Amino acid sequence: MQKIWHQITEHLIPVFRRRLSGVDALPQLAVLGLLSGLITGGVILVFRLAIEWPLEHFLPGNGSESFEQLDLITRGLLPLAGALGLGLLMHRLATHDRKVGIVHVMERLNYHQGYISMRSAIVQFISGVATVVSGQSAGREGPAVHLGAAFSSLMGQWMRLPNNSIRTLVACGCAAAISASFNTPISGVIFAMEVVMMEYTIAGFTPIILASVSAAIVTQAVYGTEPAFNVPALTMNSLTEIPWILAIAVIIGISAALFIQLVDTMGKHHHRPVLLRITFAGLLMVPFAIFIPETMGIGYDTVNETINGELGFWLLLGAGAAKLVITSLSIGLGMPSGVIGPTLFMGATLGGAMGLIGAQIMPEHASSVGFYAMLGMGAMMGAVLQAPLAALMALMELTRNPNIILPGMLIITTSSLVTSEAFGKKSLFLTILKNQGLSYQNSPVIQALRRVSVGAIMDRSILRTERHLTVEEARKVLKSEPKWLVVEGSNGPTALLPAVDLARYLEDTEKLVSEEEIEPPESIDLMDIPANRRDVAPVQYQATLEEALNEFDATNAEALYVQRHVAPMIQRVYGVVLKADIESYYQYRRS
Predict the structure, then answer these.
(1) Would you state the pLDDT for residue 1?
(2) How far apart are CA 409 and CA 244, in angstroms?
(3) Which domain-ending residue is among 436, 462, 480?
(4) Among the listed residues 354, 359, 340, the one whose alpha carbon sits nearest the alpha carbon of residue 146
(5) Interior CA angle at 402 toward 421 and 244, to 5°?
(6) Which secondary structure element, helix H or strand E, spans residue 390, and what is its range?
């Protein structure tokens, strides 16, 4: 058994890693996608249990969302006490450890190649559970995405995979988390690529699809095959409703723009003490919890009641507006809340309210309140996240009804355009990143370079050698016919030398010796002979081509030697990369 494990670790895993360096390693990525989905599905089950179990025992009535049945004093004190506890927790953490949610995942992808720490995952788990259990206006999907991405990234780090593969694993974790949360596998795939990665690639689809499906299977085994909401059969009764649907799209687009603006405005206070900000957010939640308790927690019970036409106009309008205000203020102040759940709540209640108005305007032609609630959910999600395709897929999977496609496409694209073009708002996540002084690079060139590791294009025909060699040692070096010589210095490689230049020097020297013009040299200094030497800098084996280009710019080196830690204080050099290699590779792939 020990011999078999030795064979795997010494031969199969290195080959597996090497194949993953390139962009076309579909079989290997497919295996990773499956593993990511299974792991994420298990993590999301534990996360949901950690939220639902205490609420089912603490809240009166049945289920885990009946905050409305709490007495007034408890409803008021619960979010304040929870916010104070969260504030104290965040206050004790370093600034970089406080970052959680989808925005943090995007930051790690853009600036750290998808590396997410276990500490970050633990903080997200605790804060994600605490926000929902303490009755904050919060969702569980944002934390779930962070957890899925984190555990998938940790799996890649444990396997010491190239960074381009870790990035793909993060996308797999995001897709699997959405799939497991809503039981919507297609939406998970599109969400990961449209919202988080902001790119669509053929190689990326296969592992992400497998991750999404396997996570859905894990959660279906526990929660069943039904989606997150109980949606009755819905259909658009008449084409005369289209003008009203467009009017609702404008209202939802304006609401989404207001939501993003409030988050942005409150986010400008991020320099203030975190304890003060989160406690203040909890204090703001108190009047909402007392007078409009539907805003507490995830609120999917209210969404289900809205879809089934069980709530009145003023309650729908009041709950939707209140959810918009308190969620935006809380998130802007730094409350570690998820935003996807509240977005669906706002869309459902506002859409349902508009549906009731439509029923008064044209009672003979208007569709059901549930129909407009579902359209509102898709429109708000598409507008806030600026992800129309992910919103449309979510709408289709939640309703399981093709009749929703045409009006869904109309309302989602219109509301997204109103938010982005009429009000100039970007995605909520990009807005928060910008508020933190960060950006998200998603140009085609950057995306292409991120998908490939240096291991895929490096030249392996190298030989490490000392700077000073005898003539016999120099001949021995050339006997293996390397293309490049990596010249060692006192602190590691110091230059890169074409082997042909050493061969030419030896040939010229032997000719001069035979003609008795010079004495045979006692030793050869590789840093002194005529040669086209290049200054070098290190780059890790896991690095992507984007990281390699950044290293070229930071060091002004003419070549990079690719290294990896194989033992404490020991680095092994695997190959070399020139800037021209990266440029020619990109040109080749693009042509």
Answers:
(1) 53
(2) 14
(3) 436
(4) 340
(5) 45
(6) helix 388-399
Contact assessment for residue 144 and residue 174, using Cβ atoms and an 8 Å cutoff = no
Indicate whether 230 belongs to any domain: no
Please classify residue 518 by burial: count the beta carbons closer than 10 Å to its beta carbon, then call 0-12 exposed, 13-18 middle and 19+ buried. Answer: exposed
Structure tokens at 169: 């694993």
Range list of H helices, 437-544:
444-450, 471-479, 499-514
Residue 576 carries which DSSP code? E
**Short-list 467, 499, 494, 503, CA closest to 484:** 499
What backbone phi and psi angles, to 5 degrees, belong to 539? -145, 140
Q: In angstroms, rounded to a whole number, what is the distance separating the alpha carbons of residues 128 and 143?
A: 6
The whole-angstrom separation of Cα 591 and Cα 586 is 9
User: Does residue 534 contact residue 454 with C-beta atoms inside 8 Å?
Assistant: no
Q: Return d(Cα 252, Cα 293) in angstroms, integer.
A: 23
What pLDDT sits at residue 17? Answer: 67
Q: What CATH number is associated with residue 323?
A: 1.10.3080.10
d(C-alpha 71, C-alpha 378), whole Å: 34
Rounded CA-CA distance 21/541 in Å is 9
Residue with tokens 């690529």: 193
Residue 30 and residue 210: Cα distance in Å, rounded?
Answer: 7
d(CA 57, CA 63): 9
Where does 480-567 have alpha helices with state H? Answer: 499-514, 545-555
Token pair for residue 7?
């064979």
Boundaries of domain holding 205:
1-225
| Amino acid residing at 126 | I
Tokens of 61: 């009535």
Residue 471, exposed/middle/buried by CB under 10 A (0-12, 13-18, 19+)? Answer: middle
Could you tell me whether strands 570-578 and 559-567 are parallel, antiparallel, or unpaired per DSSP bridges? Answer: antiparallel
* 435, amino acid identity: N
Pairing state between β 559-567 and 534-540: parallel
How many CA atoms does the CB half-sphere of 14 hold within 13 Å? 8
CA distances from 453 to 20, 109, 151, 173, 364 (A): 8, 15, 21, 20, 61
Query: Which of 100, 92, 154, 149 has its CA nearest to residue 126?
Result: 100
Residues 498 and 477: their CA atoms lie apart, in Å, by 12
**Regions in the chain scoring below 50 on pLDDT:** 5-6, 8-9
Q: What share of the chain is helix, strand, coil (3-state, %, to 5)?
A: 65, 10, 25
CB atoms within 10 A of CB 23: 19
Number of CB atoms found within 10 A of residue 456's CB:
20
pLDDT of residue 483: 93
Residue type, 474: A
Enter the DSSP assignment of 503. H
**Do 209 and 260 fall within a single domain?**
no
CA distance 541 to 113: 13
Angle at CA 19, nearest 5°, toward 17 and 21?
75
How many domains in the chain? Answer: 3
Do both 383 and 488 map to the same domain? no
- Euclidean distance between the first and final Cα of the chain, in Å? 48
Tokens of 180: 């497991």
- Shared-domain flag, residues 291 and 204: no
DSSP β-bridge partners for residue 544: 453
CA distance 100 to 338: 9
